[in-house]
Specification:
about 240 residues; alpha/beta; Spore Coat Polysaccharide Biosynthesis Protein SpsA, Chain A; seven-stranded mixed β-sheet; two-stranded antiparallel ribbon; about 35% helix; globular
């Protein structure tokens, strides 16, 4: 399906994480919510959305499994490439970006372990990225946040009204995010030496491209499946 005004957008869905906190021999993206794998839900959301193409990034050796047990089984037709991920999340994103050989104007990056992304969230991100070139989904925090010092005491209490918990998808103009990630890979060793930890895609764009990133409303249900408790919450949402 072609997007508005022939703009083409690709979603990179990350499913290469090991999910050590899940305490399971099965990777969290393949655990079942009701009778379907966690990963299915986000892929299905993008399949039914305005997004044109999908790149699925999986763990090493899992390509055939995903093709057989998810893509073919659930007839997901928008997936143009299944790519092997890397050691860190940012490696997986970079490999996903590099795999896009077709026409693409914008890229959405989404964690496959967030099964409750929906069409409304995707549409808000799709509309915003065409205006601002870079945007991320998130929600205002509900709890008071404390900044701790090195001894475990409260150092400060930031204004809660200005603090957001960041989710995915995160969306960017393709040229912008591709250049940012190439710079990241080129300077990876220096970043490690400086103690810089890359935690999300917006940080890469902020750091290397000096680009402001717009916040877009997500949903408090757009949780990431990380622990066994999250899986039980997900059962309720489904």
């Amino acid at each position: 399906m072609s997007s508005v005004n022939e703009i083409r957008t690709t979603a990179i869905v990350l499913a290469a994480g090991q999910g050590k906190r899940m305490q399971s021999n099965v990777r969290k993206q393949y655990l079942l919510i009701k009778d379907k794998p966690v990963l299915y839900y986000s892929l299905k959301a993008f399949e039914d959305s305005v997004i044109d193409d999908i790149v699925l990034v999986v763990g090493e050796g899992e390509e055939d499994f995903c093709q057989r047990e998810i893509l073919d089984k659930y007839r997901l037709r928008k997936i143009r490439a299944v790519v092997c991920g890397g050691k860190e999340r940012y490696h997986s994103v970079a490999y996903g970006i590099r795999s896009i050989s077709w026409e693409c104007d914008y890229i959405l990056v989404h964690d496959g372990a967030r099964p409750f992304v929906d069409d409304e969230i995707i549409k808000r991100v799709f509309d915003e990225v065409r205006q601002s070139r870079a945007c991320v989904v998130g929600m205002p925090v509900k709890d008071t946040i404390k900044i701790a010092d090195e001894k475990g005491y409260v150092a400060s209490t930031p204004d809660r009204s200005r603090i957001w918990q960041i989710q995915t998808p995160q969306a960017f103009e393709k040229k912008l995010i591709a250049e940012a990630y190439e710079k990241l890979l080129a300077e990876e060793k220096r970043l490690h030496a400086d103690g810089v930890t890359v935690t999300d895609d917006a940080m890469v764009v902020e750091y290397f491209m000096n680009m402001p990133v717009k916040l877009v409303q997500g949903s408090y249900e757009n949780i990431k499946i990380t622990t066994p408790e999250d899986l039980r919450i997900a059962e309720v949402f489904v």
